[in-house]
Write a structure and sequence with these properties.
Layout: E1 2-5, H1 8-19, E2 35-39, E3 44-48, E4 51-56, E5 59-62, H2 66-75, E6 78-81, H3 86-89, E7 95-96, E8 100-104, E9 112-117, E10 123-129, H4 133-138, E11 143-150, H5 154-161, H6 163-168
Parallel strand pairs: 6-9
Antiparallel strand pairs: 1-2, 2-3, 3-4, 4-5, 6-8, 7-11, 9-10, 10-11
């Protein structure tokens, strides 16, 4: 694992990518001096203006940590899943249509989704939509979203273990 600040040029490139993301409006508009990067084997975590973002396979997304990203997580469309699906999704399983109780917001194929449990509406995963909203609603079975970040995965644990760096970053 590598920890360090991005150069001004690399920070500007990252912020330009973030500016193009609909859910990230407002982040990249802030005056950002330093972007802290923590690099893992197959992911990166960025601390950008008090928010904690992650990147996996060229996909940038907010981490599930509400203390840093509540405002960002609320901007994402959501799938609310039944409590029987929660343990599987929280261990990395993709989202299957039978477990989805409701849809919040509109989305297209490829968009980021937040997966919430139906009891507390807590975020348990960030997923990528495999179909658009209308197609998902029409389905009775099958996979509708690919899990890219979930509670207690390596990104989640890294952020939890790095809170001292994030607060000062």
């Amino acid at each position: 694992m590598k920890i360090g600040y991005l150069s001004k040029r690399d920070s500007a490139k990252l912020l330009e990518r973030v500016r193009r993301l609909s859910w990230a409006s407002g982040i990249a508009d802030e005056k950002i001096k330093n972007v802290l990067q923590i690099s893992g084997e197959d992911f990166r975590v960025y601390v950008v203006g008090g928010h904690v973002l992650a990147e996996v396979r060229e996909i940038i997304f907010p981490t599930l940590h509400e203390e840093y990203n509540r405002r960002l997580l609320e901007k994402l469309p959501a799938l609310v899943v039944d409590m029987g699906a929660v343990p599987y999704i929280a261990r990395g399983a993709d989202v299957m249509r039978p477990g989805v109780r409701s849809f919040q917001g509109s989305f297209s194929e490829g968009d980021l989704l937040i997966i919430r449990d139906e009891k507390n509406l807590r975020p348990i995963a960030i997923s990528r939509a495999l179909k658009n909203l209308e197609e998902c609603r029409a389905m009775e079975k099958g996979k509708i979203a690919e899990n890219i970040h979930h509670v207690d995965d390596k990104i989640w644990r890294l952020v939890m273990d790095s809170k001292h760096l994030i607060k000062s970053g």
